[in-house]
Amino acid sequence: MNTTTARDPAGEVLDAVLTGAGRMLLSVFTLAWWAILFPMVSVPAGIAVAAGWFYGWPAGIGVAGGTVAGMVLWRQRSPQTFERWFTGRIRSRFLTWHRYRRRWATLLTACDLSTRDGDRVLVPRLVSVHIGESTDLVRARMLPGHSPDSWTNRRDHLAHGFGAQQAQIRFAGPGLVEIVFRRSDSLADPVVVPFESLAGFKPLPGSKAA
Of 72, 157, 173, 191, which one has the greatest count of Cβ atoms within 10 A? Predict the structure, then answer.
């Protein structure tokens, strides 16, 4: 005897609505969070939208164009502060997500650093990530039952899994582990030092260094 299960159209519609509402709320929260992190972009964008809404699209385009011109001028006049407050922060946030957060649970499970509690899989909590020029510093909270050897014995697996050249394990406190991922050699690119700096003198005005 074959048994068929009737599909409830109302239930399917409700599931679709709830799923769409959840994704919309997540998108709104993510957008609001990025707006808080980068007010130098979100505030001018909000002003441009408001100007376009109340005074017409030419006003909105004018505000947006003025904002872009201001950003370009900022980049030209002070590239250090532009890198520190804008591009550097965006780069750090993106690489933190791309390198670590998006696959943290999957890779630590593959490296045998997760444990199972009944039907639940417990994964060490990712505490913080600092993105550097050649190395990244990652802090994680150890699970109950882990020992220092649990992590030091997996450093090669962690380096391979996260695409780094090398991983070093340090312990910053009870239950807190630091992983230093070396991604490039900071001394790989040669540094050109002027001859006068090596010799300890400066060339005379109007003369050229040999």
Answer: 157
